Amino acid sequence: MKLIKSFLLVFLLCFSSCDKEESEELCCGPVQKNLIVKLKFDPNQERLNNLGQPASIPSGNAAQTPTISRMSANYIEFAPNAFTGLGEGEIIFEGSKTTEGGTEAIDFQDAIFAGNNDVFLSIPLNQITPGDYNWVRVSLAYQEGDIDLLVNGVDYTGTLASFVGFNTYISSFNINGSTFTVNENKLQGFWAFEALGFTSQGQAPPGATTVPNPLFDSSPIPQGSCVVTGQFENGLTLTGNETEDVVVTLSFSINNSFEWTEVNTDGKYEPEAGEQVVDMGLRGLIPMVD
Fold this sequence. Notes:
- By secondary structure, the chain is mainly beta.
- Helix content is 8%, strand content 47%.
- It contains two helices and 18 strands.
- The protein has helices at residues 2-17, 21-28; strands at residues 34-42, 61-64, 67-79, 90-94, 97-98, 105-107, 119-124, 131-151, 154-163, 167-175, 178-187, 190-195, 198-203, 227-238, 246-253, 258-261, 277-279, 285-289.
- The strands form four sheets. Strands 3, 4, 8, 9, 12, 13 and 14 form a seven-stranded antiparallel β-sheet that branches. Strands 7-1-15-18 form a four-stranded mixed β-sheet, with no helix packed on it.
- A hairpin with a 6-residue loop joins strand 5 (97-98) and strand 6.
- The chain is globular.
């Protein structure tokens, strides 16, 4: 009985003293450290093309910087070097997929979302292979935010939902209280829009969505995959003996990322004039270790 009482006393002392992380490690064992991945949407980050080079707006087109409220990714991979092929690095996240709509597609109903500077993913560091990583690859799936448009001479702001993944099965989704029922697969470039109760939807041309990949020559990606590639400025080293959480922020360029063909050369998006959406892809990725 005395032995049991002594054990309980030690346990209670340990439990009560583990208010701080240091005390918890001392009396209750090591505390699991995590890799925390945040998303950031930067309107001032450099605007890149598919080759990861600075890009201007093509003649005959116009563009604007949307206000992104949330985003979803379906795949995140750390790559050691510029010659690491897609899928050959350390895959730290894979989202749900389904064949409900026929061919394999991202399962939108099971997607994970995050807003600007929000945490998208948190996983134990012991689940990641220690090593030196210089590149990040992110397969984007969805982005939602506000854009400006001109209708009959009146300026409006509406919400655009952009499905930028390689293929997405969508049963239904909601924008500002308006429900869109789809129940089928949609290829990269499918979009939907809502403003003041008015809704519309459409499909950007195949292959038109910009997907920056500075490793185009050494490590290409399949067309339509929406795998954006970015390089750590000073690399990321994981030893397996981290004493603190590792926070990685994935900063995406939204600099003039919503692009359309102009009918009236006024720099304003006018769908009623026949101006067509041609691109809604993100314009670059800079991963940062906080």
